[in-house]
Amino acid sequence: MFVTPSMSMTGTPQSVVLVVVDHTDLVEAQEQIRESQERLLSIMNHSTSAVSLKDSAGRYEFINMRFEELFGVTAGDVIGKTDQQLFSRDIAQLLRGRDLEVMGQLSAIQHLEEMVFPTSKVWLDSVRFPIFDSNGVVRAVCSQSTDVTMKHHAEEQLRLAAKVFDRAGEAITITDSSGNIITVNDSFCRITGYSHQEVIGKNPRFLQSGKHGKDFYDAMWRSLIEQGCWQGEIFNRRKNGEIYPEWLTVNSVRDENGSVVNYVAIFSDISAIKSSQRRIEFLATHDELTGIPNRSLLMDRLKHAVAQAKRQKTKLAVLFIDLDNFKVINDSLGHDVGDQLLKQATERLKHCVRDSDTLARLGGDEFVAVLTDVSLEKVNSVAARIVDFLGASFSINDKSLFVSASIGISVFPDDGQDSLTLLKHADTAMYRAKERGRNQYQFFADEMKVIALQRLTLETGLRLALETKSFRMCYQPQVDIHTGEVVGAEALLRWRDPTLGEVSPAHFIPIAESCGLIGAIGETVFTMVLEQIAYWREKGLTVPRIAINVSAHQLRDAGFAAKVGSWLDSSGISSELIGIELTESALMERIDMVKEMLTNFDGMGMKVSIDDFGTGYSSLSYLKKLPIHELKIDRSFVDGIALERDDRSIAKAIIDMSRALGMRVVAEGVESEEQLKVLKEEGCDMVQGYLFHRPLSPEAFTKVIETGRKSSRKPPKR
Question: Which of 57, 164, 352, 597 has the fewest beta carbons closer than 10 A?
Fold first, then answer.
């Protein structure tokens, strides 16, 4: 309602104009608008989507509650501000870029967007559309964003599962509740040979190999029903008919009501694994090179054969076969040639025994044959046949090579009642065959039992001697032939057993080598010598170089030179005070490895001496190749040097050769003035023997070096 007064010419009120307007429709319209706005705001605030409205400059005009929750803001903080003022640079650039894209295209655009916040990461399915004014100009941009993080993650998991399913190395089969195939992966097709189209809708029983009976499959289904899974090895058939082993796992898939809806089977072809397993089992019981039984299987079969012979009261023979000269061929021509020879020898041995007998390789060039239910005449025949067969030439790489066989034979029940005794007695008999000239066979006899017992006694005594430190050292001086001065000594190991008495090194060293004690004894020798030298030096004595004997078995240890170096370091003794004595035969075993070891000794400053020179190979080639400083003329030549022309000629040749190669010469076993005179005339450097000194105890040798190292005996004048 509006009231307007009417005035006279004099300015006094004359009348009033009253205008009444009905606003009912307008008020109702405004109320409806207000209610609509409230409903729209309520809808927006309860929407699961984040809704925002920004003007064309990018300033927020409206956000709903879901936007506040999703972005961690409030409307009061946001309205009137831009994305650059609210969010990180990356998010702000993304949001502004999307708005500009909508404003440029003048139409709605949908995007899947990754939003990375400081503490979380979300995926949004966003729709943006422009809002125009009455002139058709974009006034604002409205955005609606739905959080699809869980859905996106689930889809990623599904894609990952699909990749795993398709690319898995194991075959996967999915069936319905009736067992009919719904899908298979590529590995299923690769393993079975069937395509996807060929198997869909079929029951997997078409893969059955026929190797399993009804009970097997009944047990499988019983496990699936009761436990929901089954796992085990099964044989199935490929499309080409080949039967193969597979490791199969089957699981049932149930719905929320507990009803089976699917079965999932996963299997892998284990043919290669089974083959490897058989190979491993074979190698565990057979020799890899020759394919015949090894020691493990031999002992098992021999034990069984002895038990059978006892029950049936029959004879059984064990033949221990060793190839003579094999090591020479193996070391000189190489392991490849040696391996070929062993293979050919194995084939020949197979032709000498029956299929019911056992032929085994113990290692190296040692074989064993077990002959069951045989007579002594048959044993003789087989042994003679082996000697003949192995004595014939072997053709390898267009070369004719020759070996022979030494065979030891033990017979059940005469030579032993168990497998270990029979094998040990056959080994003893084999050594007797070697002692008697090789290329023959020997039966175990009563005297061999005595030898075997002696070997056992010696071995036991050696072990006890190591434990109780019962060894002692003697030192035999080496004398300069011209001055009579003691310029060195050879360390000699001695052992007195409480039962056996004084045992010669010639007897106990081979036993130590055969039973694996030589390494421990060698360390004992070095320790005793180094401790003795340390004692002499503490007393202020000038100690000459002490030579220590090293066996071929010690040289086979690739780390031996390093061990010697560590013993020297621990003792503080100069390496120049230690010499290494080797035999010629020790040098010829694995000469390349020996050369490296001797080079190490030479680098340490130790002198290397060859003992018993002239009795072995005496090859100039190895003398030139190896770092050798000294040769020792064997006592067998020295014995007759004053009387035998040949011995003197050999000694002279050794001395002249040593001179040419820059080596010193020591003559061993000098016991007479006549021998000394000849050696001096021929130009020998040093002598060693009873004429000057017997092997001396440490105390006696101490007196020698205390007296100025002059020999108690003056050599004859020229």
Answer: 57
